[in-house]
Amino acid sequence: MAEVQDAKNLLLETNDEFRQLASQHHDLDERLVALESKHYLSDAEQLEEVTLKKKKLQLKDRMEAILRDHRAGHSAHAVSV
After folding, report:
1. Whole-number Å distance between alpha carbons of 32 and 48
2. CA angle, corner 74, sides to 70 and 79, nearest 5?
């Protein structure tokens, strides 16, 4: 698991797309926390919550794909060295 976290940290430092996705994911998470802290959600807020969860999942999926590509490339490099 430390290996995965190290790869994520490296991507945050070196990969613009990964960094932007992580930032967007964080922003959506903050908004979801705000919505979930309410006792009652209006219809519009309920729709927003569902939409935000879907967008957050899409961002996470893309980040995971970048991480997999990075790790696959890193593994191939390590083997060829």
Report:
1. 9
2. 150
The structural domains of the chain, with segments of one domain joined by +, span: 2-80
- Residue 18, burial from CB neighbour count under 10 angstroms (0-12, 13-18, 19+): buried
| Residue 56 CA neighbour count, 13 Å, CB half | 15
pLDDT digits (tens, 9 = 90+) for 28-81: 999 999 999 999 999 999 999 999 999 999 999 999 999 999 988 876 554 444
Model pTM? 0.83
Q: What's the rounded Cα separation, in Å, for the pair 57 and 64?
A: 10
Question: What pLDDT is stored for residue 64 in this prediction?
Answer: 97
Residues 6+ apart with CB under 8 A from 25: 56, 59, 60, 63
